[in-house]
What does this fold into?
Amino acid sequence: MAIVFEWLDRHSAAIWWVAIASAAMLGAAMLAVPWLVVRIPADHFARSRSGRSTSDGSRWPRWLGWLRWGWLLIKNLIGFALVILGCLMLVLPGQGILTILIGLAFLDFPGKHRLQHWVVSRRGVLQSINWLRRKADKDPLILG
It folds into this structure.
């Protein structure tokens, strides 16, 4: 037990910085989540995800293809890093599950929309989202 207290004493500054970072992430999440939730189109989960605007299935014009691939690479790298950090935060101080969920939102993978639909369709999640949307004078989410 003395070894643990000695380790804590030697690393007290790092422990304080981790605690401050954790509190900052919690505060940022408390501001960002409601802001993002009210910006979801009401019919986002009712629309078919296969209807895209260009022939290759992307929403980007063909002449911006290189920019699209660069954006996808950066977005997926950020998502992957957040998932890894979230997994670490499950055993370290921090908002692990929230960080994993944010990372998954950044990632592109088969079945992502179906997974998001399943999570949002849980009664408590949908009620909470629609409560936030009501407070912001937005229409409730329509699940299809």
Remarks:
- The chain has a mean pLDDT of 83.
- Helices lie at 2-10, 12-37, 65-89, 96-106, 112-120, 123-135.
- The two ends are 56 Å apart (CA to CA).
